[in-house]
Structures are given as structure tokens and as C-alpha cells.
């Protein structure tokens, strides 16, 4: 049992200990597991582009799966003034640029309303056996996920297994439906 601050530190350290090769292999293993999820009849898939400096799961493999299955792919842009995400459709001519926090995001494009999104792949640092997650602490995803329709499927992606319990979960935290690791799909 740990609190979010301790878990952020632990998992940032664990991620930094992964080699580039391990990172790629584990990201590919996660993408292969994603194929087994009961999500493929859905249309609008929201995915994050990894912050390479934070050694996040490389979602490029999942992007290829979505693209190959002709799904509508949605990317977000952060609005730091109001801690909000604006969503854009991934099209052939969309421009991706890193913001001041090294987050790759669309410059602009065709906006997609939150209620259209069917599936969200959620970045995280850690998660527990109840589906709670620890992010970077800014609350962007909790706010976004709370605005999604109730049946939106929320899928965390993690290199590591779950913690037993995150002790300082609060009411505004939105639980995951699944979390995919290189070895397992955890269902909540």
C-alpha cells in the first residue's frame, strides 16, 4: 500500500532503468495484448503519443493496429490554462509538435467532441488491483475521463504489474476498465 507521491517516484525510477530495447519489446507486447480486448466493434479511439523523455509506453504499435482496422483515431492537445484536453481527429495532414513539456500533440485539426470517443488509452505511472491509476498529478486525464460517456472504455497501459492498493485515491479519480501490461490484461 502506497500513496501517489511514493508511487510516482518508484515508477519513474523503474522506467528509467529500462533499456531502449526493453522499452520497445514491452511496448510491442502490450500492443499484441490489446488485440485480445473486447473493443474492436468501437469506432472512435483516443490514444496518447508517448513523451519519450518520460519513457512512456510507445503507442506507435497500437496506432498501427487502429489504423489497420480503419478506426477513427483521436489525439489530444493540452490547454494548460484550464487543465483541459482538446481532441482532434488524426488525419493524413495533421501536424504534430512537441509542447513546452515535450508532449507531442496536434497543432490543430478537426475537433472531436468528448461524447464521440468510445475507447481511451490512458497513460499512467502506476495502477492498483482495483483499477485506480497514478498519473503525473495534473489531473488532465481525470477531468477528461469524467467528461466521457459512461460506457467509454478506459484502458491503462503499463510496463509493470499492479500495486496492491493506492492509498490516497479521491472521489475525482476515474477508474480504469482494463490495464494492459506486457504479460496480462487486468480487468476491473
TrEMBL record:
Cofactor requirements of the protein: Mg(2+)
Pfam family, one: 5-FTHF_cyc-lig
SUPFAM superfamilies: NagB/RpiA/CoA transferase-like
Binding site for substrate: 51, 56
One GO molecular-function entry: metal ion binding
InterPro entries, sorted: FTHF_cligase, FTHF_cligase-like_sf, NagB/RpiA_transferase-like
One GO BP: tetrahydrofolate interconversion
Name recorded for this polypeptide: 5-formyltetrahydrofolate cyclo-ligase
Family of the protein in this entry: Belongs to the 5-formyltetrahydrofolate cyclo-ligase family.
Organism superkingdom: Bacteria
Chemical reaction(s) catalysed: (6S)-5-formyl-5,6,7,8-tetrahydrofolate + ATP = (6R)-5,10-methenyltetrahydrofolate + ADP + phosphate
E.C. number(s) listed in UniProt: 6.3.3.2
